Amino acid sequence: MILIVDDEPASLVLLEMILKRDNYVVRKATTGREALRLLDREDEQECELLITDIRMPEMDGRQLVTQLRANSRTSSIPVIMCTSTADRGTVMALIGQGVRDYIVKPVSQATLLAKVRSVLEADLPVIEPQARTMQRTGITPGEYRPMARAAMDSLEQIAIELDAALKGRNGRVVRLVADRVREPASSFGAKRTIRAVRTVGNSTGDRDALEAGDQLMTEIADLRAALRIVSERTA
What we know:
Layout: E1 2-5, H1 9-21, E2 26-29, H2 32-39, E3 49-53, H3 61-70, E4 79-83, H4 88-94, E5 99-104, H5 109-120, H6 130-137, H7 141-167, H8 171-179, H9 182-187, H10 191-202, H11 206-233
Parallel strand pairs: 1-2, 1-3, 3-4, 4-5
Helix pairs in contact: 5-10, 5-11, 7-8, 7-11, 8-10, 8-11, 10-11
């Protein structure tokens, strides 16, 4: 479950709509105190992520995070904070103190989903175990290393083309190039990368495509690094 906290009804509706469209279970609260009461309920589904506005009456986002960390039941819940440009410095100071990331309002769908996935999937391996890949694809240990190297080379070329499309601010080309990442990522069970590709493909405009493309560039770099390690390990 993802809990979103904001005193502005329009913001709550927008965040809920975006998250539910991506099949997340969502709960809402309009104040920090309401959020704490909801989290304290025994019958409530476990909260995997809290998204909160920083500026709220009674209890602002900073105070809410402090209360979360003071309670053993809620101390490990990761937090993404929604902020205005003026608050960015304040939120940056909270990173590592219970706040994992932040989103600047007005919220972009691609940015929100990319950051939510990044937090929720932070502990997922970049690629699946080698044994699982060999079992699923029917390859031998001797074939695994060449396949990893071929995927690395393919991803390197794709990253070059994606970077050019991003610099050229061309959302259509970003989508076309991003789709080519799907095959090498799927070969190695790279779920994080596959979801980043899906986010680019589901983007509804150039702004969303470019923001999702930036996140995909990060995932490609992580995937190539993981493939380099396993290809050297099996040498």
